[in-house]
Design brief:
Number of helices: 2
Number of domains: 2
Strand order of the largest sheet: 2-3-6-5-4-7
Strand content: over 45%
Order of helices and strands: EEEEEEHEEHEEEEEE
Helix content: under 10%
Length: 164
């Protein structure tokens, strides 16, 4: 139901790992549900600074990126642990009924007309996502429980009597 990414104006799609080799190539830790997210990228923000992408390599199930101007291991190391972000408008399109995690967090949850609380986290369980509300209420993100989600209004309505 939700796709992992962060913030509203910029979305986090990865984190820079260790330098690989001597030419400034960096391992990338993907923080996105979209395979191929880095393929075809021309530019990306790393720690708030825009870099042109020279090359993206997939080696052994891992992703490596070579940025323009990062031409040696020492410069590459300065980028380690920084987040890679893109503009919200560059977010991958979603199918109907799918939402980004960062859009769900902050939504108010209602059981009918009664406000239950605010989504503070979205837990990935493997089978379905679970909305954590005010840190102590867990609501499965299932069509049998969630009646409607209105991202513009930051409002989620669950089917009445869905809470125990």
């Amino acid at each position: 139901m939700t796709k992992s990414l962060q913030s509203a104006a910029e979305i986090i799609v990865g984190k820079v790992g260790a330098a690989r080799g001597l030419d400034g190539t960096l391992k990338i830790i993907p923080l996105t549900d979209f395979e191929g997210r880095f393929d075809g990228l021309e530019k990306i923000s790393v720690g708030g600074k825009i870099f042109r992408v020279e090359e993206v390599k997939h080696i052994g199930g891992q992703i490596f990126i070579k940025f323009a101007g990062v031409d040696n291991r020492e410069v590459a190391k300065t980028l380690t642990n920084k987040f890679l972000t893109v503009d919200r408008k560059e977010a991958a399109p979603l199918a109907d009924g799918e939402f980004y995690t960062f859009d769900i967090i902050g939504c108010e949850v209602f059981d009918g007309d009664k406000k239950i609380g605010t989504v503070t986290n979205v837990l990935k369980t493997g089978s379905n996502d679970v909305f954590e509300v005010d840190g102590n209420i867990l609501i499965p993100a299932l069509k049998s429980v969630v009646k409607s989600i209105d991202i513009a209004a930051k409002k989620i309505v669950i089917k009445e009597s869905s809470l125990c």
